[in-house]
Amino acid sequence: xxxxxxxxxxxxxxxxxxxxxxxxxxxxxxxxxxxxxxxxxxxxxxxxxxxxxxxxxxxxxxxxxxxxxxxxxxxxxxxxxxxxxxxxxxxxxxxxxxxxxxxxxxxxxxxxxxxxxxxxxxxxxxxxxxxxxxxxxxxxxxxxxxxxxxxxxxxxxxxxxxxxxxxxxxxxxxxxxxxxxxxxxxxxxxxxxxxxxxxxxxxxxxxxxxxxxxxxxxxxxxxxxxxxxxxxxxxxxxxxxxxxxxxxxxxxxxxxxxxxxxxxxxxxxxxxxxxxxxxxxxxxxxxxxxxxxxxxxxxxxxxxxxx
Length: 307
Prior knowledge:
The protein is an alpha/beta fold. It folds into three domains: about 5-90, Orthogonal Bundle (Arc Repressor Mutant, subunit A); about 90-165 and about 280-300, 3-Layer(aba) Sandwich (D-Maltodextrin-Binding Protein, domain 2), CATH 3.40.190; about 170-275, D-Maltodextrin-Binding Protein, domain 2 (3-Layer(aba) Sandwich). It has ten helices and eleven strands. Strands 3, 4, 5, 6, 9, 10 and 11 form a seven-stranded mixed beta sheet that branches. It has a two-stranded antiparallel sheet with strand order 1-2.
């Protein structure tokens, strides 16, 4: 049984005339009559008394009409609700960011925007490397990305200054951290007389490039021995907290000094500056993206982009 047969029957019950009902349903009368006949065969009973003028419903037809109206009404209402859901989803702005920024930065940043625009984060992006974020933005699979930026991250050569806009929305720094030792000082300290156990970001991450280039340029050589690699700062932090070695963490992830088991493994000369940027494609025509971009600029006017 097809839903359109039920709609045909409702039209026939309203008009009590095959030709007018067929016209209302925008099909030929022979096709309409055939579908009513198929419906009666499916139900196993006559639904229309064709011997009267005008047509009348049989007792079975009158009973069946109640069900038809109920089903077609529910389907129509459900279809409208589904359409509204799709429309609401299409009006949301989709953005992607890293796990670290989602956990340490996102909520404070959104609250500071003071915007009513509905942002929907792609939580899958929390496991992506920066290259994947950029690819999603290029392919217009998201409207906005929030990411760390440094001139030492060559991933961004693709979108910096070409068909994309960005706003620096905050500044961050990477700080080398160590588990605190029994003396209250760092268990491991830079530059290190012997090779210090080092928990590194893997080579697919932006952080790996930033730290590697920073160390390569530094006159004071750090004695580091990679003992573990990870793509996520949360994993690196957990390894540091267990005393496996040192690692660089974004300052926002470290937390208040009085509550942390971690202490800096070096002075300020071992800290690495970063920017936190929002990027969008200039050609993105999403109805709310322009308004959000304006809200971001306004928020930068109210709050300096610093820690």
